[in-house]
Amino acid sequence: MPANVKTRILFRSKRLNIYLVRYPQGHKVGPHLDMIGDGRLYKLNCVLAKPKAGGEFLCEKNIFNVFGRVILFRPDLYQHRVSRIERGNRWLLSFALTTP
What we know:
InterPro entries: Pro_4_hyd_alph_FE2OG_OXY. By secondary structure, this protein is mostly beta strands. Helices cover 0% and strands 59% of the residues. The chain has one domain (6-99): Jelly Rolls (Sandwich).
């Protein structure tokens, strides 16, 4: 059985949250939307380390995506997922901004 995802909260406020996340080998994230109560949710994901195989981020629509390393998208509007990590770990620095 694969190890659990490890999430460290680096900063948390009403509008901005910053996380450092490690996705281990064998993990995948199925298609989903991130639900919020009110407002708009923007996520800026910075992939610090890509796995050696697998672990690709896929989203219906990105605001921008720079080489699969820096991705800005609306997780509340567009379905997104991460394919199964076949080998290695995926490290992510994630900024989540909620606007009214």
